[in-house]
Amino acid sequence: MLSFLLLILIYTGLYAILALGQNIITGVTGMLSLCQAGFFAIGAYVTAILTVSYGVSFWLTIPLAGLFAAAAGALVGLPTLRLKGDYLAIATLGFGEIIRNVILNWDSLTRGPMGINGIPMPTIFGMTINPYKKWGFLLLVWVFVTIFYLLLKRLTRSRMGRALEAIKEDEIAAYAMGINTTRYKVWAFMVGAFVAGCAGSLQAAFTLSVTPNTYTFMVSVMVLCMVVLGGMGNHIAVIFGALIIQLAAEFPRLLGISSTVPPQFKQIVFGLILVLMMIYRPQGILGRKRVNYDQLTGTLEQESLLLRVRRIIRIGVKR
Amino acid sequence: MSLLYTTQLTRAFGGVIAVSDVDFAVEKHSITGLIGPNGAGKTTLFNNITGMDVPTSGKVFFKDEEITGMPAHSISRLGIARTFQNIRLFKEMSVLENVMIGRHFKTGKSMTSGRLLNAVRSYISMKGEEKAIYDTSREWLEFFNLDKFRNESARNLPYGSQRELEIARAMATEPELLFLDEPAAGMNPQETDRLMATIRRIREQGVTVLLIEHDMKLVMNICEQITVLNYGKKIASGNPLEIRENPLVIEAYLGKEE
């Protein structure tokens, strides 16, 4: 039972990373995209192929997986930029499926439907992070969740993040205010894809094998649900959303009633959650949190841990 | 030489010629009005100059450089800022954030040298760039008397203040030329008076103002030069007195005597 709980938490972490990426595309920039699964797949396959066929270190494949996915993100972003709302969703949905189908049919590289097995377990400082023991991997995944959370939070609070938000609020006005909307939209897709690619890399190292049918359209939908449920544009809310969706999906097994409840039941639960959310809390559970710039710029000395550490170092050097 | 001028600017939408062969100029440091009946092509002319739309033919020059067909974000970087006829604020963002967006490209340039280094440094400390953006934005809010609203959502402002905020956001880009598309639309007489004073103060900052307006009291009061469009064509231009007495203008607004 504990093992199963750990498994859920590991998957929550992986999905939380995917959702953080989706949040940049959909929550912050306001583009309804449905191909997070595609970027996820690219990341997983990059790690699988590089570690198995070329013997590259797992740690090195994480950024590489991100970069490959980001390149795919640019590919999706550029041609679909003129599309908005539903049309963008349909186009990106198609793109996600294209990625999966390419993987499925490119036998010489991906071994098609058989997938790639025998991905080596990651090691750190001579220790092996054994996915079967779960604790180490749980830590690894959540370290990455934390890193991405901090990075993306900082990003949305910068000049660039504000530009992305302006595009969501009113693209024409943003354009008139000197924001290169085309560049920023592609850029948002690339960031979102990069993050998803890294998540894919971790997933490949966790399951030790990858198959194309893991990365279906349902994954993208679930990730989108997490963002909508948690609160668009709010990073911590999105992680929370990932946890809730995971628990909702796995609750029959958690309660030990999986033999009496059909597996399709989880779709019903999703649907119910989304309908209730749309009626009672369309902004998501936590909603968007406004940045308090007065506090940020005024009382920053007390706010930022990094700044404090830096000051201590500086004082130390002076002495 | 004029700060901005167009030569034979034409914009056709299929068979409809919205702007036709317009030679139009804005003198430096002036307040220029662009008037005309509804559908005369004023906003289309605006859009074609500011890069929101591309002219079918003709050219636009700003500071003697051709800017025809340039994207709007490049044109605003050259020093032309604008507001919109139907207010286009970032409604869910705070008043302060709206103005901060106006500062978007003002701090970007310093980052071109050592962009990565700067990004790393700004990660560690929010000061520097963000603080500079914040401080200047507060100054612009003070200028428009909106500072007390800075943490409100833009959508919650009273209508007149929303119009002012849009101007504040445009001014935050520190333009040389400010385009106002019907700034007084929907304002009550007190708000209009305040707006007139504000426009004069903006000019005192060394900014040239071009405005589209239907409120004749405002136009006749503050504009030094007025250009009149009708059916996409320029029918007159001159000072308010000349325009008031021009028979073509009277005809355009009131119709012809039988």
How would you describe this protein?
The complex is a heterodimer of chains A (319) and B (258). Chain A has 319 residues and is mostly helical. Chain A folds into two domains: 2-288, ABC transporter involved in vitamin B12 uptake, BtuC; 291-319, no CATH class. Chain A is built from 15 helices and two strands. In chain A, α1 (2-28) packs across α10 and α7 (159-169) packs across α9. Chain A is globular. The N and C termini of chain A lie far apart (55 Å). Chain B has two domains: 1-79 and 175-258, Rossmann fold, CATH 3.40.50; 94-172, no CATH class. Helix content of chain B is 40%, strand content 23%. Chain B starts with a strand and ends with a helix. Chain B has 258 residues and is α/β, with parallel strands linked by helices. Chain B contains eleven helices and ten strands. In chain B, α3 packs across α6 and α3 runs parallel beside α7. Chains A and B meet through α7, α8, α13 and α15 of A and α2, α3, α4, α5 and α6 of B.
Key attributes of the depicted protein:
heterodimer, A: 319 residues, mainly alpha, ABC transporter involved in vitamin B12 uptake, BtuC, 2 domains, two-stranded antiparallel ribbon, 15 helices, 2 strands, 73% helix, B: 258 residues, alpha/beta, Rossmann fold, 6-stranded mixed beta sheet, 4-stranded antiparallel beta sheet, 11 helices, 10 strands
Write a concise synopsis of the structure shown.
The complex is a heterodimer of chains A (319) and B (258). A two-stranded antiparallel ribbon of chain A has the order 1-2.
